[in-house]
Amino acid sequence: MARKNRDELASWDEPAPEPVFCPICERVIPEDQRDEHHLVPKSKGGKKTVLLHRICHDQIHSIFTDAQLAKKFSTIEAIVEDPAVQTFVTWVRNKPPSFSDSAKESRQSLRRGR
Question: Which of 3, 20, 67, 88 has minimal CB crowding within 10 Å?
């Protein structure tokens, strides 16, 4: 039992991990809500990633096709400037960091179904 207490004390000395903020909604991203977003989709040769809230990541892919992301929306700045993303950010910004919801079906998947 004493050993457990020493282990617990040792963990108190460790600094808390730095919070990670979503560049889309600017909220802290809980560890279980972190998604890596390829700024240029992997299908288009992209390699660079950024951490986003899962809900923000899903929303980006529901708004834009991979071709749009590769050509016009390959930076966070370009994504955040889009009116549909701004509407989403206004809505989600007031939600707790752990909030999750289903994004609407993507334009890309809608086109595949036709």
Answer: 3
Output the six-digit token pair for 12: 């108190």
- 78-93 tens-digit pLDDT: 999 999 999 999 999 9
The partner residues of 34 in beta bridges, in order of sequence, read 53
What is the value of pTM for the model shown? 0.75
Instruction: Tell me the pLDDT tens digit for each residue of 20-52.
Output: 999 999 999 999 999 999 999 999 999 999 999
Annotate the chain with DSSP letters as a single string: -HHHHHHHHHHHHSPPPPP-B-TTT--B--GGGEEEEESS-GGGT---EEEEEHHHHHHHHHHS-HHHHHHT--SHHHHHHSHHHHHHHHHHTTS-TT---PPPPPHHHHHHT-
Handedness of CA 47, 49, 55, 59 (dihedral sign): negative
